[in-house]
Inverse folding.
């Protein structure tokens, strides 16, 4: 059976883990060349890279640059262009979280979160758009969050960055609308990934709660289905956005949050 992304190249930031890796697998499954990015154990990443090539029958490249730094973002985009000519599908997914009251929020964490969760998406997008416009086809997908639509306490930097990302995406969608290029946000509620697991200790401290209380009374409290979203469900939405069926879906913010933001 023919795979609908054969001949396309997808670059997914923060794809050595969690949701990003699920996107990479889903798009490789449809035949795309993949550029993965992120940190982690070199052997484990190489194994994932080879696995993606087996899935796609195409190429997979690892670019391990730190996306909080503009020169490294430029180097990653250059590597992708050298290997594949350019990026047809850009998924801005790398992100980090820090949980603390605003008056105690560490200054370095604020800067890092804004750099990674917001500024990096601007830099990758500005570098990807010329090729997409020339090709008259492109897909820009952001992993935003329910926190691009609503807030939670103690997550000031993250909520600020994600709201900014949502506005940025709408602006880009308008600018590229006549070029066959779409730009959309996918906004998950809580997905069970290392990012969520790692914030449990800080949330326990900030709210003086046990691990179980954080899971049930904080994380899943706002999610009416009382279930975590899976990374595969998020990736399936990205596949839809890459399809011809979604050619007129642009500037949208698609919630996958078990009803969280319906409240
Ligand atoms: P994760 O921690 O599993 O993955 C984050 C990825 O980003 C990893 O590959 C990591 O190596 C990479 N990364 C971290 N710092 C980086 C840097 N400086 N440069 C390049 N790569 C870097 O997290 P996840 O839960 O899969 O989150 C992915 C995205 O989904 C994030 O943008 C996050 O805000 C968003 N999101 C997650 C949830 C959730 O509940 N997990 C919900 C909504 C939105």
């Amino acid at each position: 059976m023919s795979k609908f992304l054969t001949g396309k190249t997808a670059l997914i930031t923060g794809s050595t883990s969690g949701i990003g890796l699920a996107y990479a697998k889903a798009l490789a499954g449809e035949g795309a060349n993949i550029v993965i990015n992120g940190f982690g154990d070199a052997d484990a990443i190489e194994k994932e890279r080879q696995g993606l090539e087996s899935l796609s029958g195409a190429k997979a490249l690892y670019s391990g640059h730190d996306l909080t730094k503009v020169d490294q973002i430029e180097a990653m985009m250059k590597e992708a262009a050298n290997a594949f000519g350019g990026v047809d599908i850009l998924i801005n997914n790398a992100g980090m979280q820090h949980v603390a009251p605003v008056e105690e929020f560490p200054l370095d964490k604020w800067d890092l979160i804004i750099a990674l969760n917001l500024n990096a998406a601007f830099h990758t997008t500005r570098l990807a758009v010329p090729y997409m416009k020339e090709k008259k086809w492109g897909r820009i997908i952001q992993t935003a969050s329910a926190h691009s639509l609503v807030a939670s306490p103690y997550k000031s930097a993250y909520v600020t960055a994600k709201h900014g990302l949502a506005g940025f995406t709408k602006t880009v969608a308008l600018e590229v609308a006549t070029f066959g290029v779409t730009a959309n946000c996918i906004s998950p509620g809580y997905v069970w990934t290392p990012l969520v697991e790692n914030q449990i200790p800080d949330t326990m401290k900030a709210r003086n709660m046990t691990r179980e209380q954080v899971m049930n009374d904080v994380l899943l409290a706002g999610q009416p289905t009382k279930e975590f979203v899976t990374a595969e469900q998020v990736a399936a939405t990205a596949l839809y956005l890459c399809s011809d069926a979604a050619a007129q879906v642009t500037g949208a913010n698609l919630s996958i949050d078990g009803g969280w933001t319906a409240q």
Q: What stands out?
A: The radius of gyration is 18 Å. The first helix runs from residue 18 to 29.
